[in-house]
Amino acid sequence: MHIERYDQDGRTIYTLQGRFDAHQVPMLKSSLELGSNTVLDMAGVNFVDSSGLALLVNLYKRAREEGRTLTIRNLQDPVRLILEITGLLGILPIEA
After folding, report:
1. Which residue ranges does the record assign to the STAS domain (predicted)?
2. pLDDT tens-place string over residues 31-45
């Protein structure tokens, strides 16, 4: 997994590339810091497993509890399908 971080228009944006799976979750947990308005750009992610889904849910819950926003954008079709099947597509804030 490759992660880049930059700030744009008051948002902290992380671009993610690679697999979002159990092997990558520990590294992602330590690398992602929630700003007041955080965006996960997942255009480079073509696979997500249950560990990756759990991390997305936990980040979203933490952001809400802390009064922050977390948005996910640029989902590839396989990842969007997994979120749809699990019911998370209607729960997590997805930006087209």
Report:
1. 1-96
2. 998 889 999 999 999
